[in-house]
Structure formats: C-alpha cells, structure tokens
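Hello,

Our lab assistant flagged a job as stuck in the queue for most of the afternoon. It eventually completed. Since we weren't sure the result was trustworthy after the delay, we are filing this so someone can double-check. Below is the sequence as submitted and the structure that was eventually returned. Let us know if re-running is recommended.
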Amino acid sequence: MKAAGDKCFPVNVKDWGHFRKMGSEIAPISDAWGNIKATIDWSDERTKALEDRIRITVENKLGKSWNCTIQWVHLPGYTSGIHV
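-- returned structure --
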C-alpha cells in the first residue's frame, strides 16, 4: 500500500494509542482497513474465516510502521521534503 500523504495517519500525533482510542470502526484505521480489504481475494472460505485475524494483523503492522516513521520524523535535523 502506498502512502497517501499525512491525512490518514498524521505525524503530529505522538502515540498510536490515539488512533486506537478513536475506535477501530472510525477513520483512519477503518479507512486503511477498507483500502487493504479491497485488495484481498475473499472468494476462499479459509480467507473469509480468518478475516478478524487478518484485520488485527493489519492494524498491528500499521501501528509498527507508523511508530517507526514517527521515530524517524522526529530525529534532530529532519527536514521534510528534502531527499538525499
């Protein structure tokens, strides 16, 4: 999934728990899940049966990725938009 700017998961939020407090049915987590869910082939019965586990895994992976990004963005000397 490509990053689509900072509107989905803003970088000015310091804690992933903020998104969890919003509830898993509220954006931005549900928006991200909707985009990812649309790319999965749900025709297989085993895949359908694992939907809850898949969603939890996706949310956990998004959280880990977001935390890594936040640590990188808040490094001293980071300047947005400058690519080396």
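-- support follow-up --
The delay was a queue issue, not a problem with the job. The result is valid. The mean pLDDT is 75. The CA atoms of residues 3 and 17 lie 20 Å apart.
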